[in-house]
Amino acid sequence: MAYINPSPGVSGKQVTLTLFVDGVVADTGMSLPALQDVTVNNSNDVFTWTQLDSGSKKNVATTATNSLDMNIVLDELTFFGNAAATANTAAKLGVFNLSKNKSYCDFSLFIGDGVTISGLGYVTGLAPTVSADAPVWVTPITITVDGDYTVTSS
Q1: ∠ CA 6-108-139 to the nearest 5 degrees?
Q2: Which pLDDT belongs to residue 1?
Q3: Total domains present in the chain
Q4: 34 is in which domain, residue-wise?
Q5: What is the 3 state secondary structure string of the chain?
Q6: Nearest to residue 37, comparing CAs of 81, 6, 75, 76?
Q7: Given this model, what pLDDT does residue 148 score?
Q8: How far, in Å, are 73, 130, 137 from residue 134 at the CA level?
Q9: Has residue 33 been placed in a domain?
């Protein structure tokens, strides 16, 4: 059995998320540092009905709702954008403005051992928090996927 093992701290194995603004040719991508608790969601909806000739409900799988959920420890340039970066790129806008501007983004999530999940979607769900017990800013982040995932492995 070959388990996918994203070994923290091991080069080439770490889970990484890279965002690009869709349609911006000059965008070389912005990697989000300090990922925590990454979840890949693929939730198929189910249509259910009853029939008079059956004692049990009938079900048919329908379209899926896809999203990536995680937490990130905030880095100022990644969250608010890098003024020195190329115009209209993910690095220039930062995570906050990608969400605020409702920018359509390409994403690429490397999950380890040569496997990458990619697609298109929107950055949502930001809610930065800080406290005395957790003295760095952390925010949940969701990539709401538009359509299907593409899975590649090397």
Answers
A1: 75
A2: 59
A3: 1
A4: 16-153
A5: CCCCCCCCCCCCCCCEEEEEECCCCCCCCEEECCEEEEEEEEEEEEEEECCCCCCCCEEEEEEEEEEEEEEEECCHHHHHCCCCCCCCCHHHHHHHHHHHCCCEEEEEEEEECCEEEEEEEEEECCCCECCCCCCCCEEEEEEEECCCCEEEEC
A6: 6
A7: 95
A8: 11, 6, 8
A9: yes
CATH assignment at residue 65: 2.40.30
Residue 113 placed within a domain: yes
- Dist. CA 140–CA 154, nearest whole Å: 29
Whether residue 79 lies inside any domain: the answer is yes
Do 29 and 16 touch, CB atoms closer than 8 A?
Answer: no
Answer yes or no: is 1 within a domain: no
pLDDT band of 113, cuts 50, 70, 90: confident
